[in-house]
Amino acid sequence: MFVTLKTVLRELLLPPGGLLLIAFAGAWLLGRRRWGWVLLLAPLAALWLLATPLVGEGLMRLAQRYPALDLGQPTQAQAIVILSGGHPRWAPEYAGPAAGDVLLERVSYGAYLARHTGLPVLISGTATDAAAMEAELSRDFGIRPRWVDGGSRDTFDNAELSSRLLRADGIHRILLVTSSEHEWRATREFLSAGMAVDPAPVHVWLPHQHVLVDYLPDAYGLLLSTDALHELVGDAMRAPLAALGRRHGH
C-alpha cells in the first residue's frame, strides 16, 4: 500500500501532473478569485520552462553527483549490482520479455562491466523487471546473473533484499549500476543497508554546445526535468521517511 500511495503521489505532484492540477484550479477560480489567473498562468509557464532541454539538463546536473566509473583504476568490488528501471515489456519479436530503453542501458553497461572485471552479477527489481533483465543478459550478452532479486518495488527494497543475498555469500563491496541521476539516492540506500559501494552510473551528462531548439519545449526536455525532480525530491524525502520508520537514516 505504501509503495502504491507513493507512486500515485509522484504522478500527481511531479510534472506534468502537479502543474496541470494547479492550472485547472486556476481556471476554475478565474471568475471567483482575482488570483485565479496566477494559478492558471504560473504553472503553465513553469511547464513550458521544465519542458525545455536547457532546463531539464540543468536539473539533471543537480541530480547527477557521481562521475563515470574509471575502469583504469583497480576495484575492490566483489560483485556487480544492476538495478531495474523504466518499463520492461513482453516483446513479440523476441517471444519473451525485453527491457525498455532505460533498463537496457543499465543492463548493457552492467554486462560490459562484468566482461571487463569478471565479477558476478546480481539483478534487482520486480519479478517482471528481473525476468526482462535476465533475458537481456542471457540473450544479448551471454551472461547469467548469479543472484536474482525479483521482489523489489523501489530503491529501498533493492538495497535491503540485494544486500541480504550478497552478505549470505560474503559479499560486502559492490559496483552499483543505475542511471546517473538515480545513482546518488541508490548509493545512499545501499550504504544504509551495510554495503560498501563503488558507483557505476550510466548516461552521465557531458557539457555540449546548445542550439536554438534546446530553448524550446519538447517531450525530451520534460522527461529530463521529471526524472531529475523525481530523484531530487526522493533524496530530500529520505530523512522524513526514516523518521517515520519507512527508511534507514544515513
Mean pLDDT value:
87
Query: How many DSSP E strands?
Result: 7
* Count of discrete domains: 2
Which of globular, elongated, flat, extended, rod-shaped describes the shape?
elongated
**Going by CATH, what is the homologous superfamily of the largest domain?**
HUPs
Biggest sheet, in brief? Answer: 5 strands, parallel
Subunit organisation of the chains: single chain
Radius of gyration: 20 Å
Quote the distance from N terminus to C terminus: 24 Å
Low-confidence sequence ranges: none
- Annotation field: number of helices: 10
From the helix content, strand content and strand pairing, which structural class follows?
Answer: alpha/beta
CATH topology of the largest domain: Rossmann fold
Helix content estimate: 40-55%
Please render the helix and strand layout as text.
Elements: H1 2-13, H2 17-29, H3 36-50, H4 53-63, E1 79-83, E2 89-91, E3 96-98, H5 101-117, E4 121-124, H6 127-141, E5 147-149, H7 155-168, E6 173-179, H8 180-192, E7 196-202, H9 219-236, H10 238-243
Parallel strand pairs: 1-4, 1-6, 4-5, 6-7
Antiparallel strand pairs: 2-3
Helix pairs in contact: 2-3, 4-8, 4-9, 5-6, 7-8, 8-9
What does it look like?
A hairpin with a 4-residue loop joins strand 2 (89-91) and strand 3 (96-98). This protein has 2 domains: 2-64 and 216-243, no CATH class; 79-202, HUPs (Rossmann fold). It is elongated, with a radius of gyration of 20 Å. The model has no long low-confidence stretch (mean pLDDT 87). It has helices spanning 2-13, 17-29, 36-50, 53-63, 101-117, 127-141, 155-168, 180-192, 219-236, 238-243, and strands spanning 79-83, 89-91, 96-98, 121-124, 147-149, 173-179, 196-202. The two termini are 24 Å apart. The strands form 2 sheets. It has a 5-stranded parallel beta sheet with strand order 5-4-1-6-7, with helices on both faces. Strands 2-3 form a two-stranded antiparallel sheet. With 250 residues, it is of the alpha/beta class. The protein has 10 helices and 7 strands.
